[in-house]
Amino acid sequence: MTEPHVSYALLNGAGETCGAYDERREFYAASTIKLAVAAALLFAVEGGTMSLERAVPSSRRFASRIPGAAHIDFELEPDELDPGMPADGTPVSLSWCLERMLTVSSNEATNLIIEALGASSGGSEAPVGVRGLDAVREACARLGVPGVRVTRLICDAAAKRAGFTHAASALDLAQLMLAVTSGEALTQASRDLMVGLLRAQRVPIIAEVLPAGLAWGSKSGWDDEIRHDVAFIGTPGSDEFRVLAICTQGYSGRGAQQVILAVAHSLVEALHRPSARGAAPGTSASP
Which is one GO molecular function term here (predicted)? Predict the structure, then answer.
């Protein structure tokens, strides 16, 4: 079993650090990288090369980025399969894929978006999946989060064995969430869409300890001995707006969730103490 560890980063709306612990430690990022895939799609829509209304055929099988390797087949990965995906070949819009990717963390929808991004790009002989991954990398650079790495499709076992991964630190994830909800790289319309979808999150963690009525949105990610959550707290643009990312490894699924809840509760409670509201940002503390 991996040695247990937790890291976190809490940022205000200006991107300043309000609290952190080992925030630059890199983790396997799991499904939190779907925020970056969403941003890449929205950049393409803003640039006129894609439309959210574009239909793509539903699929549970995808080509590996490793030439000659076995296809990714979600039918063989029941724990990774999205039961809400329609039968293979059924047309689904990229808007539907975007919603499914962010609200229920659909792996198939994620891969469909990445391949669609690759199909819409030109000037390269690389497979569409690889070209789509290049679009995600470029989106991360535009958002100012080059530390977020998305170098393979979801569940590409052959690429994983070859060293391709999804990686980010707690600080990377906090900065990514800040960028897609209140940064200036995406248009206001794109940011509003992201905020709406993240507020419709069906797998929240941090949100469980937030005061009733407080606006929030989030994206979690998990794998064996890995569980993360990144959330925005409050309304983007308000003085109280914050972003919190908590990353864990080495805990059981339930144990990891309890660790995230404990850290989040402590930080959120401190944020809402009257004496803390005027505190200067930039402090660091262990949970």
Answer: beta-lactamase activity
- Residue 123 confidence (pLDDT) above 70: no
Residue 273: what pLDDT? 73
CB neighbour burial string for 62-86, b if at least 16 within 10 angstroms, e if fewer: bbbbbeeeeebebeeeeebbbeebe
Share of the chain above pLDDT 70, in %: 94
Q: How much is the average pLDDT of 10-31? A: 97
CA-nearest of 174, 132, 169, 179 to 147 is: 169
Residue-level length of the chain: 287
Those residues whose C-beta lies under 8 Å from the C-beta of residue 125, and which sit 6 or more positions away, are: none
Q: Name the phi and psi angles at 228, rounded to 5.
A: -135, 160
pLDDT digits (tens, 9 = 90+) for 53-107: 999 999 999 999 999 999 999 999 899 999 999 999 999 999 999 999 999 999 9
- CA atoms within 13 Å, Cβ hemisphere of 114: 31
Task: Write the DSSP assignment of 9-33 as a string of letters.
Answer: EEEETTS-EEEEESTT-EEE-GGGG
In angstroms, the CA 6 to CA 28 distance is 13
Q: Which two tokens stand for residue 259?
A: 């660790």
Are the C-beta atoms of residues 37 and 172 closer than 8 Å to each other?
no
Q: Are 13 and 182 in contact (CB under 8 A)?
A: yes
Yes or no: is domain 5-276 CATH 3.40.710.10?
Answer: yes
Q: What DSSP string describes 67-105?
A: TTPPPEEGGG-TTT--TTS-STT-EEEHHHHHHHHHHS-
Q: Write out pLDDT tens, residues 158-209.
A: 999 999 999 999 999 999 999 999 999 999 999 999 999 999 999 999 999 9
CA geometry: angle 247, 207, 143, nearest 5 deg: 55
